[in-house]
Amino acid sequence: MTGLTQAEQIALTRLGWHWSDDYALSVIDGTWIARPVGSPADLITADSAAELRELLREDYGRRRPVSGHACDRMST
Fold it and tell me: How many domains are there within the chain?
């Protein structure tokens, strides 16, 4: 997390809290990055934590059938 602002560190930690079981998360040179654990060749990138969160919700919805657990996740 070196080089991130405190707000970015907090945002990355929050994303990790909700998504780290399914995605490897990082921020490199201002680009927010997620790699699905089961498909590490797939790369999801965004310009902000908020944008990445939305992209993760969409990607997770495509990869996983909707269930109680997925619905909970979709609200984070």
Answer: 1
